[in-house]
Amino acid sequence: MAPPPLAIEVSQLRVVRQHSVILKSLSFTVAAGELVGLLGPSGSGKSTLMRSLLGVQTITSGSALALGDKVGTPALRRRIGYMAQSSAIYLDLTVRENLAYFAGVLGVDISQVEHTMHIVNLHSFAGRLVSSLSGGERSRVSLAVALLGAPPLLILDEPTVGLDPVLRRDLWQTFAQLAGDGTTVLVSSHVMDEAARCGRLLLLREGNLLFDDTPAQLLARTRMDSYDEAFVRLIEEAS
Ligand SMILES: Nc1ncnc2c1ncn2[C@@H]1O[C@H](COP(=O)(O)OP(=O)(O)OP(=O)(O)O)[C@@H](O)[C@H]1O
Ligand SMILES: [Mg+2]
Questions:
Q1: Considering the entire predicted model, what is its pTM?
Q2: Which residues surround ligand 2, an ion (CB under 5 A)?
Q3: Which residue among 28, 100, 207, 229 is buried most deeply as judged by most CB within 10 Å?
């Protein structure tokens, strides 16, 4: 059988911002339909890597392809769903109005609005102003925007931050379901315990890729019981 097509191909990616090297020669690939966790401490370069894949971060050297095209190619805009770390939704619009607005911007059929609200379980909030929603509910609206039009690649920057454990579990189930249906999902987090929910982990530290394998391998290789301890052990080994 032919190997599945690659959704992400990063080769010797280097990003320098204001004379500091933020990403140091990163290389990895992600196959279509994988659920990959991008983990690492604050400042390790997760958002910079995600922005590079979106084509909104200047790449100093190396290359990055998304869905077979060079990142930044205009046609990719509709094929990558992105949830930024900071909220990009309108507080003075309802949930449904926000989704309808972004559907228009993305050229996605309006029928997708109802469908997308169902996926993230937001239907009962459809008519509520976003300003009246809790933090977790707002995160789900941002996630719904990323899901509009069922893009084949999702790049989600800390979508579970600030959520309670039950909501976090629900969202990870949604990510797993999307991946099961063939969507490639790259999710960043600095909560190491979320690692267990991914099929594969990329661990970043100071712009270097410290680890690229399954969660089970992370525990096995470090001989630790918890992901937090395993990560600390990897860092100690690397320094
Ligand atoms: N405009 C900028 N100019 C220079 N350095 C920057 C700029 N923006 C970010 N950085 C630096 O790049 C590094 C990586 O930042 P990035 O936002 O990618 O980290 P992160 O892993 O997403 O962190 P967090 O978990 O806090 O979101 C940090 O050291 C940050 O200070
Ligand atoms: Mg970040």
A1: 0.93
A2: 46-47, 85
A3: 207
Residue entry with tokens 């280097």: 14
Residue pLDDT, tens place only, 105-153: 988 999 999 999 998 889 999 999 999 998 888 988 999 999 999 999 9
Q: In what order do the strands lie in the sheet with 61-66?
A: 20-31, 6-17, 61-66, 69-70
Reported as a single tens digit per residue, the pLDDT across 31-46 is 999 999 999 888 999 9
Residue 60 backbone class (left: φ over 0; alpha: ψ -120 to 50; beta: rest): alpha
Work out which ligand 1 atom sits closest to the CA atom of 48: 18
What spacing in Å lies between the alpha carbon of 229 and ligand 1's midpoint?
Answer: 24
Residue 218, helix vs strand vs coil: helix
| Per-residue model confidence as pLDDT tens digits over 43-76 | 999 999 999 999 999 999 999 999 999 999 998 9
Contacts of 96 (CB under 8 A, 6+ apart): 113, 117, 126, 127
User: Does 43 sit in the ligand 1 pocket, CB within 6 Å?
Assistant: yes
The DSSP element (H or E) to which 211 belongs, if any, is strand 208-213
**Residue 204 Cα: closest atom of ligand 1:** 21
